[in-house]
Design a protein that fits this description.
Shape: globular
Strand content: 25-35%
Number of helices: 13
Oligomer: single chain
Distance between the termini: 58 Å
Helix content: 10-25%
Length: about 625
């Protein structure tokens, strides 16, 4: 049977039995004869574990209370509702749903007609929900069994259902996928239709709704968290490095997480309570940054070190993130400590004194000294360092080497200008198929958005100060060049940022990094003799009103450690290339360090980079 991801609804009819801090353990190693196939939690917060022909019962302190035997053939799924166990038992004749009391006594059983693959089962009152598909990679749907009438009905959902959980009142919350785009959908069981949708911005694996706190809990890979659908926020509450989670359930204050491969159940604090000696550090971002390799390493070091901080990651829907942050900053909120911004927003936030200045922290300044020249400037405003780089995107022009050989022309060396590009574009326009018509181009572009517009704004404008001028000879000359390129049919019409070679185009945009190997790259043209390469990216900044400045600095100190920053050569801030090639990530993907020429190109572009400034109204008609 393929890997199956599922969760089951536990009854919450009683008050909390055990608070998380009162537990004697946070890891339950389950003794299984065959494997961990599913789990469910009863009203006393006992954990029922399906082990093929048996069900083992544990309490939250890891003590095995008893096993249910001699009733099941192959229990694939279990669920508990109204103090009854529903066990989906598989045999050669199909599926049988067996109903047991909490002590394991058989009450009833009957055949159920289900698809070959039942991926998940859950229940709410007298309704049993089955997530199923005919094929391993087939489209999933949900069938509902009414235990009073023993009638089944398929939910009226056209999209592929990835996961689900019984939800408020007479609804079910679905995690569905339309054309590879996942989203959440509240489905009304009475009206038999979806009534409200929410965007997905963290890509979860499974979900569980807890009516006690009206919160949806989720798992994804080695992390668990909780969702606030209405406000488009999520918060990581637990992580276990390199462990694959398969199911989450709730027992009072305890988040119960199952790993099939590990045959282990992990217990986490549902409320994410901070220990007496810890400081809770809240980090806000527009996507799940805690999944990134360097952030995983940072958290591993913090977990192992004596830092006395507990880091929580809050992810906010990218569509609302910027306004969300602005609102919190304008209202003087101090309930978040570190947040991620685009470098292009740095000036606006820094001039409003929203960002904590980092100049006085020697460890951070020492880390900047190990970085390529230019990165510190990207993270500064009027001489003050106010950010630490997270992801920064630098660009080169990569060369279509196969076409270059056919064209038999010399590439430009070093920095060059748009005037020089115009002359080069004429030489790159050739007839290589012998039909009498030129069929090659130097570059593909969108006529309305010239690549030099972003460069010009970096050099001649500051929108945060209201400074911008386009009535000058420099800009007029650029427009003349652009007009000639199109009038003379020297560039191909199409997307500029394509990041892939095109058969009849010599240059295409590429990411500059320390992982360019021996491939041929050149500098993009500059405006005049002054080198300036626009770049954007993301950076960590500290909320100036944070009450946990010391904890913020500790976090950034760890994040800037060489063993963190040299994991990924595609995001290279440190100058020394050697440590990058020793990382597991580098070796895993068979990467290749940039040769001497490409290293120099990367070093020069970074040194002469400038934060982009966007003017969406500026285009060429």
């Amino acid at each position: 049977m393929s890997s199956v991801f599922f969760l089951l609804l536990s009854s919450c009819s009683q008050k909390q039995v055990s608070r998380f801090e009162e537990l004697k353990t946070d890891t339950l190693n389950i003794e299984c004869n065959y494997g961990l196939f599913d789990m469910a939690i009863d009203s006393k917060h006992r954990i029922y574990v399906a082990d093929k022909d048996q069900i083992h019962v544990y309490n939250l302190n890891g003590k095995k209370e008893f096993s249910i035997k001699n009733i099941l053939n192959f229990c694939r799924k279990i669920a508990i509702s109204n103090d009854k166990i529903f066990a989906l038992d598989e045999s050669e004749t199909g599926y049988t749903l067996k109903v047991l009391d909490l002590n394991g006594t058989l009450i009833d059983q009957f055949q159920v007609q289900l698809a070959r693959y039942v991926r998940k089962m859950d229940c709410k009152d007298d309704m049993i929900f089955f997530l199923q598909s005919e094929e391993i990679e087939g489209k999933n749907h949900i069938t509902v069994l009414n235990m009073k009438t023993l009638q089944t009905e398929k939910l009226n959902v056209n999209d592929n259902v990835l996961s689900f959980t019984p939800y408020r009142d007479n609804t079910i919350l679905l995690y569905v996928e339309n054309d590879y785009t996942p989203y959440y959908l509240i489905y009304d069981l009475g009206e038999k239709k979806g009534v409200k949708g929410f965007p997905d911005y963290i890509t979860i694996k499974d979900i569980k709704y807890d009516p006690e706190d009206d919160t949806v809990y989720y798992i994804r890979f080695d992390k668990a968290g909780k969702l606030d659908l209405e406000n488009s926020e999520s918060e990581t509450i637990y992580r276990k490095d390199e462990i694959i989670f398969d199911k989450v359930d709730i027992a009072g204050d305890v988040c119960v997480i199952m790993s099939i491969i590990d045959k282990t159940i992990y217990l986490a604090d549902k409320n994410n309570t901070v220990a007496q000696n810890q400081t809770k550090l809240s980090i806000l971002s527009s996507r799940a940054i805690d999944m990134e390799f360097r952030m995983n390493k940072t958290m591993n070091l913090i977990d192992k070190g004596n830092y006395d901080i507990k880091v929580t990651f809050k992810t906010i829907d990218p569509g609302t993130y910027k306004n969300h942050i602005s609102t919190k900053l304008m209202s003087g909120d101090s309930d978040f400590d570190i947040f991620v911004i685009y470098l292009s927003d740095l000036n606006n936030l820094a001039k409003k004194n929203c960002l904590h200045v980092l100049n006085s922290y020697q460890n951070i300044m020492d880390s900047f000294d190990k970085m390529f020249d230019g990165i510190k400037d990207l993270c500064s405003y009027e001489g003050n360092v106010v950010a630490v780089p997270y992801l920064v995107g630098y660009q080169t022009w990569a060369v279509n080497e196969e076409l270059l050989e056919k064209l038999d022309i010399e590439l430009p060396e070093g920095s060059w200008t748009w005037d020089e590009f115009y002359e080069f574009a004429k030489t790159a326009r050739k007839d290589i198929d012998g039909d009498g018509k030129a069929d090659t181009y130097a570059l593909q572009c969108d006529k309305a958005f010239a690549p030099f517009l972003v460069s010009y704004n970096c050099q001649y404008a500051d929108f945060s100060k209201g400074i911008a001028s386009y009535d000058n000879e420099v800009f007029k000359n650029l427009l003349r060049i652009w007009k000639k390129l199109w009038d003379e049919n020297l560039v191909k019409n199409g997307e500029y940022y394509n990041y892939r070679p095109i058969d009849d185009v010599l240059f295409y945009t590429a990411h500059a990094s320390l992982e360019m190997g021996n491939r041929i790259h050149i500098y993009p043209p500059c405006i005049g003799e002054d080198m300036c390469y626009p770049t954007d990216g993301e950076a960590f900044v500290i909320n100036a009103r944070s009450k946990n400045i010391d904890a913020c600095i500790k976090f950034l100190d760890v994040y800037l450690q060489p063993e963190v920053q040299t994991i990924n050569a595609q995001v290279a801030f440190f100058k020394d290339p050697a440590p990058y090639s020793e990382s597991d990530l580098f070796k895993r993907y068979g990467s290749e360090l940039s040769n001497e020429v490409n290293y120099k190109i990367y070093e020069t572009i970074v040194k002469n980079s400038a934060r982009v400034q966007f003017n969406p109204d500026l285009q060429i008609s």
